[in-house]
Write a structure and sequence with these properties.
heterodimer, A: mainly alpha, 3 domains, B: mainly alpha, Rna Polymerase Sigma Factor, Chain: A, Arc Repressor Mutant, subunit A, 2 domains, 10 helices, 73% helix
Chain lengths: 372, 183
């Protein structure tokens, strides 16, 4: 068999690579290498020496204080992360319904986490979340990871948990930035907080088979704590930050009344037990409550309703109820127009010709179907 | 009494880590801290950022191990791969925002020099440092992995998401450029 000698018939680059590997592994010295490649000796020697010099540069190593502190911080951090598990997306797996008592237990855990996180905000405990804050170079990565986790959330409940986790983290960031006098990034974090709460509200009021009762319990508990934290912040924040904080308080206030999430929703007088229920085909179940109506909403409809609520400046719950009693978005728009008049700020609102963007014209013909 | 993992193989330690043994993970951290730090540092040229990113690498690796629970795992390749990805992310973030160096260069303590400064201060390696710095990013990565941190072709390929053959080609190209650059 013809064994190829790795040190023969090489280009200079190959010779250099082989020598660097062999020297590193202690198989050869620089001198040995030069002897193996006599024709490259002149060029190889300085190159090898330069690489060895860089490799052994003692300055490029962690500072002693980081080595000591980093080790302890890492282990402390990991100890707190042990209880945090990310939702694992399983391919080709149908998610089995989780027994309600298990979900409730999970939600209680999340409430406790939220409480812990917000206690940390006032008590100085280190919140077991990513350390990157607005303005840090890792912050973009932190946000990207959060988004990926949301994208991978297997169901609406998991997504709601993540939104709450993120919202709590945003409040931590607000507190941290304000303490540093970094108003700009505090404002950015407050905006992100509002975004998290808006997404959460959409989830709770929207489609996706969310258990409204449990989510309402969770969201109310967490938002109540958020409000406490924000109120405390408002009391101590500099004047320029107060408007933004007040905005966040308003945001969490509005969302405490979760549409479709009231425990007594199922008892709406007009929607329980329609007489002809039994005769309905199974594929088209009768909507028997606002809650069910909310659950059966398509994402498109939910978004259109949210847009209408924003345009008319009314609660989502009101729009949802109107929608559940009506048949089309067009009818909802007409009813809202009749009840509340043209939405504020709509182009040409006074004469009724200004249709809100993306939600169909309030003055449109009835019965044409208002789906976006 | 906590177990002593100082003589244990990486695989044995990872089995303990999967059981949630944080102390075991500490041993892996000690083993690979220097080289991961060096890998990160040569790419982002700032001590403080390198420290943060190095920590992030080990936290991420912990998550990967616990979430995937691999039966066989090359921890070294894993942390290099994560370090590679995080440094790439860091560059992307920097491109979007104001250059970190631009924003912070005056705030940096004078003692925190860049690798080029450190290497340029050494007459033996100044030309080589400059030549490496002038390589395209991928060639730079190959040189750092292969000849500064001493990864094998396979480990480098794993880290950079390339085939071994591709690594060999890039390595050849990089060394050729370095040779020309320091002539």
């Amino acid at each position: 068999m013809n064994h190829k000698n790795p040190f023969q018939e090489k280009s200079l680059e190959e010779a250099l690579a082989n020598c660097l590997d062999a020297i590193r592994q202690g198989e050869l010295s620089v001198q040995d290498c030069l002897e193996r490649f006599p024709k490259y000796q002149a060029e190889l020697e300085p190159l090898l020496n330069k690489f060895i010099q860089i490799r052994s540069n003692p300055i490029v190593s962690p500072r002693p204080e980081f080595r000591k502190r980093g080790y302890k911080q890492l282990l402390d951090h990991l100890a707190t992360r042990q209880s945090v598990t990310y939702p694992q997306p399983d391919r080709n797996i149908q998610y089995k319904p989780i027994p309600k008592f298990r979900r409730r237990f999970s939600m209680i855990q999340i409430i406790l986490l939220a409480v812990l996180a917000l206690t940390a905000a006032t008590g100085g405990v280190v919140y077991a979340s990513d350390a990157a804050e607005p303005g840090d170079f890792l912050y973009g990565l932190d946000q990207a990871i959060e988004q990926v986790r949301l994208d991978l959330a297997p169901n609406a409940e998991a997504a709601a948990e993540l939104h709450l986790e993120n919202a709590a983290e945003r409040l931590e960031e607000v507190k941290g930035r304000l303490a540093e006098g970094d108003f700009e990034n505090a404002q950015a974090a407050l905006n992100s907080y509002n975004g998290e709460i808006a997404s959460l509200a959409q989830l709770v009021g929207g489609p996706g088979g969310v258990d409204q009762e449990i989510l309402t319990e969770l969201v109310n508990a967490a938002l109540g704590i958020h409000q406490g934290t924000l109120t405390n912040l408002l009391a101590t924040a500099p004047e320029q930050a107060q408007e933004a904080i007040q905005g966040a308080i308003d945001s969490s206030n509005i969302q405490v009344d979760i549409p479709g999430g009231q425990p007594d929703d199922a008892g709406q007088p007009d929607d329980a037990g329609q007489p002809n229920n039994a005769g309905q085909p199974e594929s088209a179940p009768e909507i028997t409550s606002i809650k069910q109506c909310a659950i059966s909403l398509s994402e498109q409809d939910a978004q259109a309703l949210a847009a209408l609520a924003a345009e008319y400046g009314i609660d989502y719950e009101v729009v949802l109820e109107t929608f559940c009693a009506a048949e089309t978005l067009q009818q909802v728009e007409q009813q809202l127009l009749g009840n509340y008049g043209p939405p504020d700020g709509a182009p040409g609102a006074p004469d009724g010709t200004g249709a809100p963007d993306g939600a169909g014209a309030p003055s449109g013909s009835p019965g044409e179907g208002g789906r976006p | 009494m906590p177990s002593d993992y100082s003589n244990a193989s990486d695989e044995k330690i990872i089995k303990a880590v999967i059981q949630g043994d944080v102390q075991a993970y500490g041993e892996l951290y000690k083993r690979y801290l220097d080289e991961i730090y060096r890998y990160v540092y040569y790419r982002i040229t700032n001590h403080l950022e390198s420290e943060d990113l190095t920590q992030a690498v080990f936290i991420k690796a912990w998550d990967v191990i616990l979430n995937n629970q691999p039966k066989k795992s090359n921890f070294r390749a894993l942390v290099y791969r994560i370090a590679h990805n995080l440094t790439v992310d860091r560059w992307r973030t920097q491109k979007k925002e104001l250059s970190f160096e631009e924003a912070n260069v005056e705030a940096l303590p004078a003692s925190l020099s860049t690798p080029e400064d450190l290497m340029l201060s050494n007459e033996e390696s100044d030309e080589l440092a400059t030549a490496i710095k002038e390589l395209e990013p991928q060639l730079q990565q190959v040189v750092i992995c292969r000849f500064i941190n001493g990864l094998s072709h396979a480990e480098t390929a794993d880290t950079l998401g390339l085939t071994e053959g591709h690594v060999r080609v890039l390595q050849h190209r990089a060394l050729k450029k370095i040779r020309v650059g320091i002539k």
